[in-house]
Amino acid sequence: MKKILIFPALLLAMALVGLVITAGCVGTPTTTPGTSFSGTGNACIATELPAGVYTLTITQASADMTVVSVDTKEMGITVQGRYTDAAASSAKTADGWVWTYALVTDGKPTLTINATGAWKADFAFPQQIDGVPPQTFTGIGNAATPFFMINKGNVSFAINTANNTAVEVHLMDYDGNPVMDETNSFEEPLAYHRGTYNDTIIVPITTSGNYLLNVICDGEWSVIVSEELA
Q: What does DSSP assign to residue 74?
């Protein structure tokens, strides 16, 4: 199963980028064991690392869109790293534009990068914080939060964005499984929303444990996680 996380204004561009990605992985790339890679422009890297949940950190030299894919035998993920003009300057760090995404992979993923400049990609186990809701997370651009404890029960997610074209907020458990809605069709708490967003969503958590949030956004965002009292 292939999961593609893209922004609405770039649907056609993504179709064209898909051609570039396919062209970038012609043949079988040489396997390069490791967790940190760097380059300039497009690249396709087959690697080896212990199977499990990882936070993939992408550092890019410009605010131009970077498209990143991680593919395994069973599944794949494609994520756009981009910023609106209104958010790009505030998102810049001393290292450039840095964003993260948490994913689960087998021991032999293939990493595909489509970028216009220099980039760096790092796989690492997600951070973990010793805390329970209420928790507040903020950022500009894509970000994976640390793992944090959520107890069984109803949990609210107050999501607010600005200077963005779209936003997705996805909850993942400690084993890398997405938390789905009752129809098992959409990822909780916010599968997808076009434009700015300011609302609170209640999610029933059926199992106490450690969870993290993947936020896909090309602008500014905040998520406040709170346990709802019975």
A: S
